[in-house]
Specification:
The complex is a heterodimer of chains A (115) and B (114).
Chain A: E1 4-7, E2 10-13, E3 19-25, E4 31-37, E5 43-49, E6 56-57, E7 65-67, E8 73-78, E9 87-94, E10 105-106, E11 110-114
Parallel strand pairs in A: 2-11
Antiparallel strand pairs in A: 1-3, 3-8, 4-5, 4-9, 5-6, 7-8, 9-10, 9-11
Chain B: E1 4-5, E2 10-14, E3 19-25, E4 32-38, E5 45-51, E6 56-59, E7 62-67, E8 72-77, E9 86-96, E10 99-104, E11 108-113
Parallel strand pairs in B: 2-11
Antiparallel strand pairs in B: 1-3, 3-8, 4-5, 4-9, 6-7, 7-8, 9-10, 9-11
Classes of the chains: A mainly beta (115), B mainly beta (114).
């Protein structure tokens, strides 16, 4: 099991460019999440999905879109990147079958720099 | 509004001694608490958790204590080892709109000195 993987590991964008971050999990988990981590602020939830074909907004959704067309994949899109989106992005997943007190498992992160 | 706070950005401990990391929260609806450990350039890895119906959970060298009346959580590592040097995040879970939401603290960087 690879667990949760993220592509790419690092990317540099110019302001206004678009990109998609890919998250994949091979654990057959129902729930998937996208977070961003900024210095001194911990991890903040951007969007999440409770199952294939569903998405919902988290704490800081502005400027991002997501899609969950396949159960194993959760895509995070930036349509027009801004310097404020410079951050480290983490994807996470959890089973979703054992109630709400479950562990979320994280990917290795994508470091994004917007110039 | 920081619902989960780790007030110590860093902590330095001698190898073999006890490390105590603290976390405070404000939302009484939180019902599950987790500690994650993070090395540089890696994702957070799950360490230990505790349900709000308990006040202690132990796993090897790691023990988490929950004081609901004080809304305070702590992680004890004993004995501390050099490999424990990392950033530790506490997280609190609440059910919102049918889904689990984790709220993270800012993290505490733990350094274990040989």
């Amino acid at each position: 099991n690879a667990g949760v993987t993220q592509t790419p590991k690092f990317r540099v964008l110019k302001t206004g460019q678009s990109m998609t971050l890919l998250c994949a999990q091979d654990m057959n988990h129902e729930y998937m999440y996208w977070y961003r981590q900024d210095p001194g602020m911990g991890l903040r939830l951007i969007h999440y999905s409770v199952g294939e074909g569903t998405t919902a907004k988290g704490e800081v959704p502005d400027g991002y879109n997501v899609s969950r067309l396949k159960k194993q994949n959760f895509l995070l899109g930036l349509e027009s990147a801004a310097p404020s989106q410079t951050s480290v992005y983490f994807c996470a997943s959890r089973k979703g079958t054992s109630g709400y007190q479950e562990t979320q498992y994280f990917g290795p992160g994508t470091r994004l720099l917007v110039l | 509004d920081q619902q989960v706070k780790q007030n110590s950005p860093s902590l330095s401990v001698q190898e073999g001694r006890i490390s105590i990391l603290n976390c405070d929260y404000t939302n009484s609806m939180f019902d599950y608490f987790l500690w994650y450990k993070k090395y540089p350039a890696e994702g957070p890895t799950f360490l230990i958790s505790i349900s709000s119906i308990k006040d202690k959970n132990e796993d090897g060298r790691f023990t988490v204590f929950l004081n609901k009346s004080a809304k305070h959580l702590s992680l004890h590592i004993v004995p501390s080892q050099p490999g424990d040097s990392a950033v530790y995040f506490c997280a609190a879970s609440v059910k919102i709109q049918g889904a689990q939401k984790l709220v993270f603290g800012q993290g505490t960087r733990l350094t274990i000195n040989p």
